[in-house]
Amino acid sequence: MIIFFRILSESFQFALHALVVNKLRTILSLLGVTIGILTMVSVFTIFDSLEKSVRGSVESLGTNVVYVQKWPWGVGDGGDYPWWKYYQRPQPTPSEMHRLEKKLRYAENIAFAFNLSQTLKFERNSVEAVTVNSVSYQYFSIWDYELFAGRFVSDAEFRSGIPVIVLGYEVAQGLFPSGGAIGKKVNILGRKLKVIGIVKKQGQSLVGSDVDASAFVPVNYVGRLMSLKNQNGALIMVRASSEKAMAALRDELEGAMRAIRRIKPKADNDFALNEVSIISNGLDSLFSIIGIAGGVIAGFSILVGGFGIANIMFVSVRERTNQIGIQKSLGAKSHFILSQFLAESVVLCLIGGALGIVIVGLAAPPLSSSFDFEVSLSFKNILLGLGISGVIGILSGFIPAFMAAKLNPVEAIRQGG
Fold first, then answer.
1. Where does 127-245 have alpha helices with state H?
2. pLDDT score recorded for residue 20
3. What pLDDT, on the 0 to 100 scale, is given for residue 361?
4. 164 bridge partner residues
5. pLDDT score of 185 more than 70
6. Does the model's pTM come out above 0.85?
7. Residue 193 has pLDDT above 90, yes or no
8. Which tens digit of pLDDT belongs to each residue from 86-124?
9. Residue 301 near residue 36 (C-beta atoms within 8 A)
10. What distance separates the 2 farthest-apart alpha carbons in the chain?
């Protein structure tokens, strides 16, 4: 074992010496490997960061929440399903929500919501295209938002339909750049609503609505100004008492909705029950395809770098043929020559791979500011980059190293001379 480590140590010393002596060749070799590993690690880093962000955004919709809506998130309950049947479905209503409250045993919270795009004004300031969510009381129990200032709407305010509003962070900044929004009244829907709260900055999600560019008003107040029937995007949100109760809640909810809408036993549902699992299942297949495509791209990049290393190692063997012959004539074993050149190839690839990983790590913060999600270099991808670098070093350097180890000492000295 001691002899093995001694041979290995000497092989690495020879390898490092060869790399230092041949600086130009080393730089060119490093460039190929660095670009290859840089491409591979970049692809997987961006891919993993995107997947993490998307899945986090999807999970923010609630893993134990069922959404009663007109349109399904998937392709339809039985696969191919005519879109016009979805179109003819009625939208959920607040009265259906109230009736469900009395029927559901496995529900912890239930809320109704729909949204409108409106312009909000305060004196000379205005914010356009604000998503105004008309919501019922338990909406804020299902969506656990943190407050930047003020408070949420109380149950009494919801029931009485008092004209109050909770602003998203960006909306509040646009209307009140100097602060002091709480207690002020903003113009919306031709009326003045009192600001009672501001939601803490959430950041933009890759799915769902942008909370920072939203506002929230009691649905009962909006019901005074317009009809709540057939409002586009209306939904009823039902949160289960636990994730284990999701299956029971879904069955109970389906039966309750069919009873409320008086759907005949053999008739199809005229509503959709949507869950996060529907999106998650679609994401699994989507990211599998993207992962394969990313792997192919990264594979070609690494392949080019590997060929570059192999070519440089063949040149190295040819240039050092005389040296190999002298070493073997002095008693150097074939495995020592093999390990010497193999070590040079591996060290070269590891240095190139490390440089590529460092570049990705340095580029991650600027990329995060450019994309709508955080790009971070994970420990898994660091190990993957270094591991692939070592494998490429072994594969690219083995044939040249094997050829060097098999050289006849006399022929090697003669060719070198």
1. 139-142, 155-160, 169-175, 219-225
2. 64
3. 87
4. 194
5. yes
6. no
7. yes
8. 888 889 998 999 999 888 888 888 999 998 889 999 988
9. yes
10. 102
How deeply is 234 buried, as exposed, middle or buried, from its count of CB atoms within 10 A (0-12, 13-18, 19+)? buried
Residue-level pLDDT at 77: 46
Q: Structure tokens of 69?
A: 């809506």
Which helix (H) or strand (E) segment holds residue 35: the answer is helix 23-59
- The one-letter amino acid code at 352 reads G
Characterize the bridge pairing of strands 214-218 and 125-135: parallel
> 159 is written with which tokens?
């029931």
* 317-345: burial string, b at 16+ Cβ within 10 Å, e else: beebbebbbebbeeebeeebbbbbbbbbb
What residues does 217 pair with on adjacent strands? 134
**How does 352-371 read in b/e, with b if 16+ C-beta sit within 10 Å?**
bbbbbbebbeeebeebeeee
The 10 Å CB-count burial string (b at 16+, else e) for 62-71 is bebbbbbbbb
Q: Is the pLDDT of residue 76 over 90?
A: no
Q: Which residue has the tokens 């259906």?
A: 96
Query: Does the pLDDT at position 2 exceed 80?
Result: no
Report whether 171 contacts 210 (CB < 8 A): no
* Per-residue model confidence (pLDDT) at position 120: 93
Name which of 207, 206, 164 is nearest 184 in CA terms: 164
Q: What is the distance between the alpha carbons of residues 82 and 69, in angstroms, rounded to a whole number? A: 17
The one-letter amino acid code at 165 reads I
Q: β-pairing, 107-122 with 65-69?
A: unpaired
Could you tell me if 225 and 163 are in contact, meaning their C-beta atoms sit under 8 angstroms apart? no
Q: How far is CA 131 from the centre of its chain?
A: 25
The whole-angstrom separation of Cα 66 and Cα 269 is: 15
Spatial CA neighbour of 348 closest among 404, 298, 397: 397
